[in-house]
Design goal:
The structure is a single chain. By secondary structure, this protein is α/β, with parallel strands linked by helices. Helices cover 32% and strands 21% of the residues. The strands form 4 sheets. The protein has an 8-stranded parallel sheet. Strand 9 and strand 10 form a beta hairpin. The relative contact order is 0.17. The structure holds (2S)-3-(carbamoylamino)-2-methylpropanoic acid (URQ) and zinc ion (2 copies).
């Protein structure tokens, strides 16, 4: 059914202009002043509101099997919560276990995601290496619309990728025209510090940040950047939490290296005092990796966004309820790592970004939607308000307020890291594929309505070696 969003102001990553937007058949069919309302169309009065691309959260883990349990949010409840908060697409992760067949893992996750309410895609994690993994990467890029491969440099003994895996996977991804992403923490250092802390009898949540200081993240970020530099592979560093990682990215980008950085809404607003809270459940709910950091790092991350050194925002939505978190009641290293946020990301970023003057509205659109669409090669299908783009849209009321709470959120978790925060500037409507999935408190998502989004690979990424070889010149090393 057609929808006519009337009387609003369109805000994109590039410009702000008064226009109506009409969608039909799942795509935007008209953007312009005082448009005719198609017969039978549903009309949304957007007077005094902004019309923006639906949010893209490039980092979620719905129903992830992890650390002996399964994340409590599934692909339907998680994408529904996202839609209520203005996010219309997630990029989740296929994470094969060590030695697990990569294509088998991919098909398993595809099965889980069929219940999604809005569109989704997958980064595929490379957690081990042999020729079958190399071949699977090619199959995924050429036949399944995967253009990004994830590498966990943390989680020793589980899914950690060592340098051998990084080097093999990065160079293969470059040949395939795919981008590599990393969780940048030195897993060996973290493991050592965890053992030391437990030996000292520090078993509570306060041990978590002590076991993974910013230097563990800064080292891994720089190592991944250097490996990508030598292999000439584009790199995307997920959930940068501290100044140490930001400095590594800033140096690389200033030297012209193709490195992108992501930051979580939580890391921009929450500091490490949460781990010293008297309520141990409260503290355990904040156990995620990288951890929330000492005061000061948050402002540095905001400056990284403002300076364009960080390009995207995400949530790393990976929910575990209180009972699940209590698995680590006697040993913090056994607490499943992860927090929620998919419903609140856009609201908290508007309030603390645009509301404080840190970000313009256009920059808000860039970091919550458009930049992720461009980096992962689905722009302007996604992340745009133009004829032919998917009708994934939000109608945003800059004056509307709400107070965030586990008692009212739609996320399937009994905790909210933004509990009690009043936000100003929220979506009053969300459209996914041109269907109204949320309108003024009315949740209209349909299980299974979401589509898998193919993400094409980039033009084969030729470095100097290839061009020399291609032109039959002596390659640089042979000169
Ligand atoms: O490391 C990740 O991104 C996954 C396993 C979610 N958990 C977390 O603590 N970030
Ligand atoms: Zn991670
Ligand atoms: Zn993650």
């Amino acid at each position: 059914m057609a929808v006519h969003i009337k009387g609003g102001t369109v805000v994109t990553a590039d410009k702000t202009f008064r226009a109506d937007v009409v969608s039909d058949g799942g795509v935007i069919v008209a953007v312009g002043d005082d448009l005719e309302t198609p017969t039978g169309a549903e009309v949304i009065d957007a007077g005094g509101c902004y019309v923006m691309p639906g949010g893209i959260d490039p980092h979620t883990h719905m129903e992830l099997p992890f650390m002996g349990t399964v994340a409590s949010e599934d692909f339907f409840t998680g994408t529904t919560a996202g839609a209520v908060g203005g996010t219309t697409m997630i990029i989740d992760f296929v994470i094969p276990g060590p030695q697990q067949d990569v294509m088998e893992a991919y098909h398993t996750w595809r099965g889980w995601a069929e219940k999604a309410a809005t569109d989704y895609s997958f980064h595929v994690a490379i957690t081990w290496w042999d020729d079958t993994v190399k071949k699977a990467m090619e199959t995924l890029t050429t036949e399944h619309g995967v253009n990004s491969f994830k590498h966990f440099m943390a989680y020793k003994g589980a899914i950690m990728a060592d340098d051998e895996i990084l080097v093999n996977s990065f160079s293969n991804a470059r040949e395939l025209g795919a981008i590599c992403t990393v969780h940048a923490e030195n897993g060996e250092l973290v493991f050592h510090l965890q053992q030391e802390l437990i030996k000292q009898g520090i078993t509570g949540p306060e041990g978590h940040p002590l076991s993974r200081p910013p230097a563990c993240e800064g080292e891994a970020a720089d190592r991944a950047i250097r490996i990508a530099q030598v292999l000439d592979t584009p790199l995307y560093i997920v959930h940068n939490s501290c100044e140490d990682a930001l400095k590594a990215i800033t140096r690389a980008r200033q030297e012209g290296q193709r490195v992108y950085g992501e930051v979580l809404a939580g890391h921009l607003l929450i500091d490490d005092s949460v781990y010293r809270h008297p309520d141990v459940d409260f503290a355990a709910h904040h156990i995620m990796s990288p951890p929330f950091r000492p005061k000061g790092h948050q402002e540095a991350l905001w400056r990284g966004l403002q300076a364009g050194m960080l390009q995207t925002t995400a949530t790393d939505h990976c929910c575990f309820c209180t009972e699940q978190k209590r698995a680590g009641i006697d040993d913090f290293t056994k607490t499943p790592n992860g927090t929620g946020g998919v419903e609140d990301r856009m609201h908290v970023l508007w309030t603390h970004g645009v509301g404080t003057g840190r970000l313009t509205m256009n920059e808000f659109v860039a970091i919550t939607s458009t930049n992720a669409a461009k980096i992962f090669n689905i722009y302007p299908r996604k992340g745009a308000v133009e004829v032919g783009s998917d009708a994934d849209l939000v109608v945003w009321d800059p004056e509307k307020e709400r107070t965030i709470s586990k008692d009212t959120h739609h996320q399937n978790i009994d905790f909210n890291i933004f509990e009690g925060m009043t936000v100003k500037g929220v979506n009053i409507a969300t459209l996914s594929q041109g269907n109204i999935v949320y309108l003024d408190g009315d949740v209209r998502t349909q299980q299974g309505a979401g589509r898998y989004v193919n993400r094409p690979t980039f033009a084969p990424y030729f470095g100097a070696m290839d061009i020399a070889r291609k032109n039959k010149e002596p390659t640089p090393v042979e000169r």
